[in-house]
Amino acid sequence: TVKGSLSNLQPAGNADVNLTEYWRVGQTKNITWGSSPSDQGNVTLVYSLDGTSFPEPANQIINSINSGTSPYPWTIPSAAISETVKFKIYRNLDTSVTTSTPNNIKVYNLALTYPGAMELKLGANYTFNWTKSGAFTLPSNEFKVMASKDGAAYAEITNPAARPTGTSWQWTNIPASYRSNDIKFKLEWMGDTTDFSVPGTPT
Description:
mainly beta
């Protein structure tokens, strides 16, 4: 019997921890693979939190998708937060036809919790707060806060030479140049410039 094969499952991660791929909860990312022949019937995609075990059904991404329909868009759940995430795909009718990713990726979450949709006063001080879950050390432990006025491009309002590394930062003496009814803020982790943003409304 000549069996088909599944191969080149991505994301494959990187053996160099400084080049590890980071995915954020809530993002939609494509998982891709090769199938020979293209149509081998249905396959199952599953992820591991410890890089070794692939518990099912808890960690199933999808359990009934045709082998030839790569890529599969996955909206990352909070349950996947880990520093040792790997992926596996196998053929439903013959689980020996399988492949898995060789290296870890890291899944984290980052959310700007304050300020939200509210009024901020010029000249006042406000402490920005955020929550984070996952690894935030390599390749950077810094965060930056950016602001957009009237739909313009975002500009950093934190000090690039002294960015915050915790879960808060104070914007002091908001300048008059930020007077607007349309101010939006964006928080970025410098290790992964995928952002989480919420609007604010200073006067």
